[in-house]
Amino acid sequence: MLKIIFLILMSGGIPVAIAMAGASMIYLFWQDTTPPFVVIHRMVSGIDSFPLLAVPFFILAGNLMNNAGITNRIFNYALALVGWLKGGLGHVNVIGSVIFAGMSGTAIADAAGLGTVEIKAMKDHGYSSEFAVGVTAASATLGPIIPPSLPFVIYGMMANVSVGALFLAGILPGVLMALLMMLTVAYFAHKNKWGADVKFEWPRVIKALLETLVVAGWPLLLWFLITRLGFPPRSTVFAGLVLLFLADRVFGFQAVLPIMTPVLLIGGMTTGLFTPTEGAIAACVWAMVLGLIWYKTLSWKMFVKVCLETVETTATVLFIVAAASIFGWMLTATGVTAAISEWVLGFTKEPWVFLLLANALMLFVGCFLEPTAAITILVPILVPICQKLGIDLIHFGLVMVLNLMIGLLHPPMGMVLFVLARVAKLSVERTTMAILPWLIPLLGSLVIITYFPKVVLWLPKQFY
């Protein structure tokens, strides 16, 4: 009965959060056995969670970076690094999204922020609108895979797993996805006989490689000083940051300081300097220092506007979580989750078969529901089955989030699809067709991540 009421409300065009809460309330009134105030109590307790405190701060950090002119710096750095390859701006698109993913945490922010710069640049260099939109849409899915990630925070809270471990688990899959996308760009470049978009110049390339070396070597040096030589962690990190600012000023680095956002987050969590929630606050402080003080690209008026946008987005996300918590509780109380679990386990007890069925379900659901809502509905149903089949919940979290990100690229509810259609001034139909070839690297990544869990779990096992 609960499922029928929910589907009726959804088919009537009611937003998913209201449909979940409304279906639960109608069912309770229908049964007349549970006091109505239980709905409010369950909704409040659903968002009364310490890990969820990270949500508004990660949203604020992403919005600050997006509005502080960081996107142009990232684009210029990626252009210097790989723009001289054949199909250069396609590779720049992917590398830029890898970097921006470490700041925004959402696919929509990546598509709307960096995508605007990338699509215009690709059109100006003679690339078709369809190719520009396709590669931008595919690379935007990296936003929630490479840490920090808003969907990982929601999944970690719902499935009761470590958010820090989820962040680490997303690094290698994100690199894998980026490599497959760059191979796809290389294929199109070879097929269409595209050349480079910028001239190969040693000074520019060496400077970009030096920036990359600093980004890779800085955390390793701090790790060696703290763990091997016994330097005090906080003062060592502070001294290292001062050196980074000096290097940025002296050498004119484009993207070293913005790229340090995910490095600080992951490094701080793995060394125990702060929790994921405290890390989200540190990311906000870092973004404010860069935008307001160092680059001076963010005014106080813009800061207030960004804060108001963050409040609006946070309210939406937390309302979905609250509504889903009562809906999930009702599914459990009425025996729906147990019945689904028994049916699936009666059909198969092979983990690989279940993962295949789960992928098909999540790809389908991702086309109709916003990722936060989909996670909060699917976790109570699928996680108990994973536990019975011995599937690692960190691994399954990556599989779930990637499925839902692919769903964002398709109608009827694909938000990335609609954002890019508006940015590129294409119809939804043409945008959908442009994205179709890019499903090959995305689905290939999904298969590897699903059936080769070591790709996901190797890094978390080194630290957790």
Task: Name some characteristics of this structure.
single chain, about 475 residues, mainly alpha, 24 helices, about 80% helix, about 0% strand
Describe this structure in words.
There is one protein chain. By secondary structure, this protein is mainly α. Helices cover 79% and strands 0% of the residues. Helix 1 (2-11) packs antiparallel against helix 2 and helix 6 (88-104) runs antiparallel to helix 7.
Q: What is the percentage of strand-forming residues?
A: under 5%
Multimerization state:
single chain
Mean pLDDT, rounded to whole units?
Answer: 83
Number of domains: 1
Helix and strand string, N-terminal first?
Answer: HHHHHHHHHHHHHHHHHHHHHHHH
Number of strands: 0
Percentage of residues in helical conformation? over 70%
Number of helices: 24
* Low-confidence regions: none
Overall, the morphology is globular
- Gyration radius over CA: 22 Å
Structural class: mainly alpha
